[in-house]
Amino acid sequence: MNSAQVMILGVGNILFSDEGFGIRVVEEIERRYAFPENVSLIDGGVLGVSLLGVISEADHLIVVDVIRNKGVPGELYRLEGDAIPERIRAKNSLHQIDFLEALTLCQAMDKVPETVIVGVEPEDIRTLKTELTETTKNRMEDVIRMVFSELQRLGITYSEKGTDRHVSRNPF
Known about the structure:
Number of helices: 6
CATH class: Alpha Beta
Largest sheet: 5 strands, mixed
CATH superfamily: HybD-like
Shape: globular
CATH topology: Rossmann fold
Distance between the termini: 22 Å
Radius of gyration: 15 Å
Order of helices and strands: EHEEHEEHHEHHEE
Strand content: 15-25%
Strand order of the largest sheet: 3-1-4-6-5
């Protein structure tokens, strides 16, 4: 069994439509699947630097968020390595700037998790409403598949809640 600490972290603000996408994806994964003890699902909200303690415990970090990349709303992205600070410096949102600072502070602690960010180009992150737009809602299953691809790459097994069926591959 893989004993590396894996964290699936949803970030964003659920009060501003698509800005809450990352949190909604993590909520859906948590509702449908059970994971071994070395996998944690975290609603990071807009905590940014406050997540430092939690992030530094992970060996592998899978972040789910909206990613503004001047693309078409609904476009999917996977960022890793040097692409992460580059995209975040492109000013996606304040919580992403704080999140980058938290990752940078992990370097000072010599505990930087291997990090991948998966997400979708948002349609609306300004309207004060708790519902996602249809565009991002329709991409939720695709992003869940992306998360499970990362878990598969890490050798993580999991099961569907309500069954005793263990899955070691992407269930989609």
